[in-house]
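Lab notebook, bench 4. Still working through the backlog of constructs that have no structural model yet. Next entry is a single chain of 294 residues. Request: give me the structure tokens for it.
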Amino acid sequence: MSLPPEYANPPLPEGINVTRTHPLADFARLLAGVAVVLVVTVVILTAAAGQLARFVPFRAEAAAVQRFERVFPDAGGGPVEPWLRDLTARITAASRLPPGMTVTMHYVQEPTVNAFATLGGHVVMYAGLLEKLESENAVAMVLAHEVAHVKLRHPASTLGRGLVLGLALTLVSTATGSDMVGNVLGPAGLLTVLSFSRSQEREADEAAVGVLAALYGHTGGAADLFRTIQAQRAGGPPPAFLATHPLDAERIAAVESMARARGWPTDGAPRPIPADVRAAVRRVAERQAPGVVD
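Model written out:
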């Protein structure tokens, strides 16, 4: 018995269950969309962590790294470290640090051409960099720059970003993410491998130039420092200082422009490094020269 036309199954159109695109292409688009969402999320969380870390009380930051202070070797006496600490005290006074914030100066007798600031207000100067600098003004520029990082809470901000990025990497590779988090939280990460962004470097430059003007009446130390570092870059491998403090023509011009805009002379008579300090630093350099056995 045949059914009336209204109850008969209509014929299905051709290709109703067939896509015009390859299934792998659809899957690739899906993966790309998920990747974009993850990247945007990580960027937002990283930026937020960096900003929120600044609100952690400085005393908590200092207490967190106190047990790692042994990472910095003892300078072993001599005139260099007391001179650096006195100069740092003058710089911190001119920098007008927030109440309760302190800076601890460390002098490391190693030939590395570097200096850095890290968590808890620790500032490190290496003999290798100090030996290259020709005036107290240039040394003060280095120290004022590092003190500015401490004042602006850049180490804490950088630590927060590093932790979020490390945790995000665990989604891609557990080993890679865990290694990065371990490096950030370990003694090396907490105290020695923090790297600041270019915007943070510019902020520290601006603060340091103001301190130089307050201490010496001019900002010539900034130019002296930049010339010295550029000369180091010209011959042989670049100094470690450039890895954490990248210099370029735009940044140097910005510092000079900043000084002129505020009416600060960009050059002036340099103040010499004390003779006993200079001699002690040179003895370190000679003792650690290739072929010399200490």
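Notes after review: Strands lie at 104-108, 115-118, 122-126. Confidence is low (pLDDT under 50) at residues 41-50, 162-190, 290-294. Flag for follow-up if needed.
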